[in-house]
Amino acid sequence: MQVMQYLNDLPANAQPDVQLVLAFAQPDAYRSRVADLRAAFPNALLAGCSSAGLIAGEQVDDFPLVATAVQFERCRISHAWVDLTDHQNDCQRAGHALAAQLPHSDLRHVLLFAEGLQVNGSALVSGMLSALPEGVLVTGGLAGDGERFGQTFVYCNEQVGSRALLAVGLYGDALQIGHGSQGGWDSFGPERLITRSEGNVLYSLDEQPALELYKRYLGEHASELPAIGLKFPLCLRGPAGKPGVVRAILAVNESDGSMTFAGDMPEGTYARLMRANFERLLDGAAGAAEHSLQSLRGSNAQLALLISCVGRRVVLGQAVEEEVEAVRATLGEQPVLCGFYSYGEISPLQDTTTCSLHNQTMTITLFGEA
């Protein structure tokens, strides 16, 4: 496997042997450069999305475009594209249809890039797993729109979709995959029972209106919703002995007192408020990198795809590159680092092969060829 990264500039000569280009960009930049990308990589799948910040090596910024070109030696790829509106916005059904489009023979891994504001990431992942061969994992993330939460986009070749889902299938026994995901947030306040919810919309905690209760915790910061919610996510308690998941707020509804999250908020689950701990966020990034190396089982990685949450970028501020530097320090100099800040991260739960939607985590997928 050979990996080449291009920050805004592209190669002057065509690279016909490149099969995959991960293109993370501002929407206008992608539209204006897609012809240049196609000229530079005439045979490649162009795949990516909008973001809340781009990762190129150890740099984090709102770059117009970061293109990471991958030339496999023995692996091959395919892709599937679905528009949520074609499935009546039923995310589970759309996920099933997306995974069913991929050829299943010799499928080793799936990368997923999804619209970031209307999608229920939990239902999407569940639908995909129901249609994929046993043992095939899914990693990826939800597209972002900075701190604006206005509109997100997914890219596939010349297509730019605002309600789109893209799956990239990777095939062949030579493919080596490692994955890791970790947070670094502190919990505070009592656990509260989710007493009314519908999918990813939360209506009440302990029989109290969810938004009213949440605002009491935020105090003077309540007027900054939904953006301030990036700093105060909710953690859902996992089953006995199992890790929990963190959920970030996407929107609030003042008329009915509800809050919309990036993934499911199941009734009967206990939730607890979280707040940032700067040092633990950096430790979490290093921990995700360590776990990804362990799951790679001694193979060499040529590419590391980093998908971190917009909430982490907001909290870390000018020091945001320190979490990428923590990843580099753990992984070493070998893999090329690329990625983006998202509205939701998709990765197996730690120490399991159960894929899930996460929020407020650093997730890492390592790629190599044996």
Automatic annotation (TrEMBL):
Record InterPro entries: FIST_C, FIST_domain_N
Entry superkingdom: Bacteria
Record domain FIST C-domain: where: 210-349
Pfam short name (any one): FIST
Domain named FIST: residues: 17-209
Matches recorded under SMART domains: FIST, FIST_C
PANTHER family per the UniProt record, alphabetical: BLR0328 PROTEIN
Protein name: Uncharacterized conserved protein, contains FIST_N domain
